[in-house]
Amino acid sequence: MAPVPVDVEVLVVGGGIAGAGLALLLARRGIQVVLADHGRLHRSGPHETLLGSARPLLERLDLGSRFDALAVRDPLRHGAVWGSDELVWRQDAAPGWLLARGAFDAGLRTMAAAAGAVVCERTVVHEHDGGFWLRGPDGQRWLRPRTVVMATGRTGRRERRELGPRTFAFTLVGEVDAADRGTAVVEAVADGWIWTHALAQGPGSAAVMLDAAACHQHGRSVLLARALRSAHGPAGRMSSVRLATATDATAGWLAPCPDRLRLGDAAASIDPLASQGVEKALAAADHAAAAIATALLQPSWWPQLCAQHAQWERELAMAHGAVAADWYGRESRFAGAPFWRARQPVPAPPLDPQQPLQAAGELGPAMVLVRQGDRFVAQDGIEHRGTGDRLAQIGFVPVAPLLRTFAVPRSLAAGVAAAGSEARLFVLPPRAVWQAAQRLLRMGWLVPAR
Ligand SMILES: Cc1cc2nc3c(=O)[nH]c(=O)nc-3n(C[C@H](O)[C@H](O)[C@H](O)COP(=O)(O)OP(=O)(O)OC[C@H]3O[C@@H](n4cnc5c(N)ncnc54)[C@H](O)[C@@H]3O)c2cc1C
Q1: 73 lies in a domain?
Q2: Residues in contact with ligand 1 (CB, 6 Å cut-off)
Q3: Pairing state of beta strands 183-189 and 77-81?
Q4: Given the DSSP bridges, would you call strands 375-384 and 192-198 parallel, antiparallel or unpaired?
Q5: What is the mean pLDDT of residues 260-285?
Q6: Range of the domain at 383
Q7: Domain tally for the chain?
Q8: pLDDT (tens digit, 9 = 90+) per residue, 418-447?
Q9: How far, CA to CA in Å, does 212 sit from each of 111, 170, 192, 250?
Q10: Pair 303, 393 in one domain
Q11: DSSP 3-state assignment of 427?
Q12: In this predicted structure, what is the pLDDT of residue 362?
């Protein structure tokens, strides 16, 4: 008898933090989910850092105690050599976690399985005959999922739109100086920046970020040696150093797929300077879980949910990019060096307060799906037909009435003042309306009047 595909509600391809986190959240809600991971994790250092500022997100997702069990509480003293040759220790930071990725991700997948997800380890997925074949050590399955999520990490480099200069990350391991034990230090050097981790025992690691073009021009070994030699902090005192991993760490994003949701780094990856890729992956899993729960009730909304999730991931990555650019801008010692020249923030052109502005021509009314708790609901909003982006509100400021006040050319101040006559804006603090209008200007939804 010919095989018949098995219907499932959700297939998640890729069991890193984003995919395994999503499978766990869906399974907890009683949604039928199959998670497939091929077991070739991206290459980073011996551990990654999850900052203490992620604690509220973990608590909201009921993951706080799980992370305490799966990861080591970060015992290191954090410091930076940035903007001056002096090492400055951070005083305020709440302790975070050190994640031994691989083991940590496997633990998260085990949790997803315990919550009811079907987890397929070391499994390759092929799309064929209108279904998905999963081939792994336990044999093969043919699935026909109602929704598909790609959480495959930084794949698809050719279609990726870069959010900054191309950056390579190299992890070096070696012996650390006794005085540097118990520290994690980020240090700017002329060729890039270095993040060292020196635990109380064992080898230390140094993640070195270099400009990809400079690596091609001078050779990575030359640049790595030069970067270490020039460091004032722990990296400069490491010995018996060897290269452990090399990977492309360029920030970037991918356009949405109409029929499947891209999740985590598969949708948008952030500058490693933020040290928040893990946190973003978890936040994205939470956002995607609400999108999938909605799509199972409203299947016709799925393409729009995929597009809006992609927009959410891209906007988050761009917000991280702005924070990273601010940090690059604080380092002026190497202003002439190519790495730093390419990463200096570009100041926005000053706005003439009298400049008349109007709503961009590509804007039109559209249904926007807005998150409310663990579901999305439909609201009136605006679509930019050029980019496909949709927006109903900025914070609590509704976008449609604000843009209506710019149907005729007006300066920003005059537009915000006129917005007061719109009932839905009248009740809001003028400062919030002003900030929303500035955001629309930065997004190109308000443009200089012709
Ligand atoms: C060098 C480096 C250092 C970093 N350090 C930090 C840090 O200290 N702190 C931090 O917060 N972030 C850090 N990040 C970022 C962080 O690692 C990522 O943002 C995070 O891993 C994204 O999670 P993800 O689940 O989206 O992707 P990934 O973690 O890449 O997971 C993808 C998963 O999909 C699986 N997979 C891929 N393709 C397939 C396929 N076709 N079929 C089946 N399975 C597949 C892989 O096996 C993997 O398990 C670092 C990144 C780099 C490159």
Answers
A1: no
A2: 13-19, 36-42, 44, 48-50, 105, 125, 151-153, 155, 169, 207, 247, 249, 264-266, 269, 272, 275-279, 281
A3: parallel
A4: unpaired
A5: 95
A6: 357-448
A7: 3
A8: 888 888 888 888 899 999 999 999 999 999
A9: 38, 11, 10, 9
A10: no
A11: coil
A12: 95
